[in-house]
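Support request from a user on the community tier.

User writes: "When I paste my structure tokens into the form, the page sometimes reloads and wipes my input. The last time it worked, I copied everything first. Here is what I submitted, just in case something in the input itself triggers the reload:"
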């Protein structure tokens, strides 16, 4: 029969392994996202993008208020 302390230790080791795996996965995904974001360029200049957003938000105020 497994003692309670052994079961707790086994659970702690499994939890630690899961956390380590998750941390490595996040680190890997962050690297991929950083690589993608550094090479992505919006087709509009920032001022033109803001102007398009403002024009769209003024076009139909009832849609923006959820009613």
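"...and here is what came back when it finally went through:"
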């Amino acid at each position: 029969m497994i003692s309670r302390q052994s079961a707790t230790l086994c659970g702690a080791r499994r939890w630690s392994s899961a956390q380590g795996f998750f941390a490595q996965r996040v680190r890997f995904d962050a690297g991929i996202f950083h690589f993608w974001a550094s090479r992505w360029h919006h087709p509009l200049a920032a001022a033109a993008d803001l102007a398009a957003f403002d024009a769209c938000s003024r076009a139909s105020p009832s849609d923006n208020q959820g009613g």
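Agent notes: The reload is a front-end session timeout and is unrelated to the input. Residues 4-58 form one domain. The chain has one domain: 4-58. Escalated to web team.
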